[in-house]
UniProtKB/TrEMBL annotation:
One Pfam family matching this protein: GTP-bdg_M
NCBIfam families: GTP_HflX
Occurrences of domain Hflx-type G (ranges): 297-469
Entry protein name: GTP-binding protein 6
Gene designation per UniProt: LOC108045936
Length: 527
């Protein structure tokens, strides 16, 4: 089996249905010889042709078996009894076709010195714009009005003071006269059930926080079995937190009361989800071992949501099937995409779910089963939206989240939680002035859409990959058309071949090869 065939088969074996299309420049073309050397049919060409049809059938059958076997246990996610519990706690629904008119309230602490939950360089206007973008990510959801609400503190049991409540009630009454107001979105990470119940009683509207709105978006964008499992798991901590009673007195309950049957429904669902996600992690561990055996480098592309991760991968791989979208959490399924570095070394780019601030880290920790591939990659490319006014805080948030995820994946072992080398990429430079692009940090300024600045980035990725994987560039003299040549094409990255001026029966092959592969070559051909 040829190296490229093994590479394609490995990509198709990913359980998350990676959509991979090898660009034209990666396809193997018949060796036409080198100027000054007699053309001949190489040994490895005959090997590629032999049994190719059987390999295609085996690959297809294997892919179908894995896909059907994995989807067989997904029916337990469709549970009406659970949907009733989730709807009561989160105010979400599986039916998102109905139109929603949403009033957005962005609470913020007036005094910068008292702000603890958000960086001081994030303005309330920026938070409000992100909250509006969340609502616009849902089809048929419209923003009726978006307001900033200054507060002394975000820790009050009622959140808003009595005076502010009167003002907001007047706004709600005005909107109700203009249109059918259906929902109130308080753009805060999480609200306690007591806060939500109080606000719902005051405004007579369903109240959602950022966590529940994001879950609604994730439900919409989760298409693969893995994504659906992880979104379902992310819902449970929120529901349990809402159900926890802060006071058991009969006069005042601070939590969401569940019946014994509902609690058992949640426990059973959680047990099944953990079992399935453990299966996902084991399967991914096997795939990582297989990739390690085949020696394919991994480049994880991470960043804040809507920073342009998918657009960058599309630009680097020339993959027409990728269709980037200008919306939050457009990419939820972790996908693998084949690419090629300037030295002809084949790599796998991993597209990942985007991060977002003012959300509990536990929400993204439920995606560890797939984010683990990114944390264990050879190189991480951190894509950042330079045109965003909160670019610096977004970068800090992603870096902190990566460190937290790496620590959890290493089971709390700080010595084993070191991140791979990180390449910082400032995307969307075509939307900002040259002055805004100036930076003292070692970063790449690119535009994935305009495809500018990609060549220096590819060279940097190549250098980091060679260093991280112990590969090096060598020039090797081998017999033309012999088994040595075939072996190198199969097991190393051939940069170019030139004629040996001293011996017309030999070729000079410029290759990228690891020390382990080089040792194998020496044992087989140099003894």
């Amino acid at each position: 089996m040829s190296g490229l065939r093994v590479f394609n088969r490995l990509i198709r074996s990913f359980p998350f249905r990676a959509v991979v299309k090898i660009p034209a420049r990666l396809k193997y073309t018949q060796h036409q010889g080198v100027k000054g050397i007699r053309n001949r049919k190489s040994f490895f060409e005959a090997q590629m042709q032999a049994g190719q049809r059987n390999e295609d059938i085996e690959d297809l059958a294997e892919e179908e078996r894995e896909s059907s076997g994995y989807l067989a246990d997904m029916r337990f996610l469709d549970d009406r009894a659970y949907d009733e519990v989730a709807g009561g706690a989160m105010r979400i629904t599986r039916d998102i076709a109905s139109s929603q008119q949403v009033l957005i309230l962005q609470p913020y602490v007036k005094w910068a010195a008292k702000r603890q939950s958000s960086p001081v360089d994030i303005r309330p206007e920026d938070q409000l714009a992100e909250a509006s973008a969340l609502i616009h990510s849902l089809p048929n959801w419209q923003v009726a009005r978006a307001l900033k609400v200054p507060l002394e503190s975000l820790e009050k049991k009622t959140l808003f003071g009595s005076g502010k409540l009167v003002e907001l009630k007047e706004v709600v009454a005005e909107l109700r006269q203009e249109r059918q107001l259906t929902c109130l979105f308080v753009s805060k990470g999480t609200l306690s059930f007591a806060q939500k119940r109080f606000l719902e009683a005051e405004f007579r509207l369903p109240v959602m926080d950022r966590y529940s709105v994001v879950i609604q978006i994730l439900r919409l964008h989760a298409t693969s079995a893995e994504a659906k499992l992880q979104v379902a798991m992310a819902e449970l901590p929120y529901i349990w937190a809402q159900a926890k009673d802060a006071s058991v007195t009969q006069t005042r309950r601070q939590g969401y009361t569940l019946t014994d049957l509902q609690k058992e429904i949640l426990r059973t669902r959680e047990r099944k989800l953990r079992a399935e996600l453990d299966r996902v992690r084991r399967q991914r561990q096997l795939l990582r071992q297989k990739r390690k055996q085949q020696n394919y480098p991994i480049v994880a592309v991470v960043g804040y949501t809507n920073a342009g991760k998918t657009s960058l991968i599309k630009a680097l791989t020339v993959e027409d099937a990728l269709q980037p979208k200008n919306q939050l959490f457009a990419t939820l399924d972790v996908t693998a995409h084949a690419g090629c570095l300037p030295c002809n070394l084949q790599v796998i780019y991993m597209d990942t779910v985007g991060f977002m601030s003012d959300l509990p880290t536990g929400l993204f920790e439920c995606f560890v089963a797939t984010l683990e591939d990114a944390m264990l990659a050879d190189v991480i490319v951190h894509v950042q939206d330079l045109s965003h006014p909160c670019h610096a805080s977004q970068r800090s948030h992603v870096e902190a989240t990566l460190r937290s995820l790496a620590f959890n994946i290493a089971n709390g072992d700080s010595t084993a939680s070191q991140l791979p080398p990180i390449i910082n990429v400032y995307n969307k430079c075509d939307l900002v002035s040259l002055k805004a692009q100036s930076s003292s940090d070692p970063v790449h300024h690119i535009s994935a859409r305009a495809q500018t600045g990609l060549e220096p980035l590819l060279n940097d990725i190549e250098q980091q990959i060679l260093t991280a994987t112990g590969r090096r560039k060598l020039q090797m003299r081998v017999p033309s058309g012999g088994p040595e040549m075939a072996w190198l094409y199969k097991n190393a990255a051939v940069v170019e071949t030139t004629a040996d001026e001293k011996n017309p029966e030999r070729l000079m092959m410029h290759v990228v090869i690891s020390q382990r592969t080089l040792d194998k070559f020496k044992r087989q051909f140099c003894q």
